[in-house]
Amino acid sequence: MAKSLRLMKMARAALTYLSLAIHAEEKKREQTRPKKGLVLPMPVDTWEDNWKT
Q: How far apart are CA 36 and CA 29, in angstroms?
């Protein structure tokens, strides 16, 4: 049980870091991208920490 919980926490952290990396990369691309075309934002909800545990 403890190993499963640890694995799920690590997976959650990995997804969080992946999301942050993608966000940083998209912000960098936005600076160099020509201002033509349509780019849609993708909002991400936030969750309270007490809900996650």
A: 13
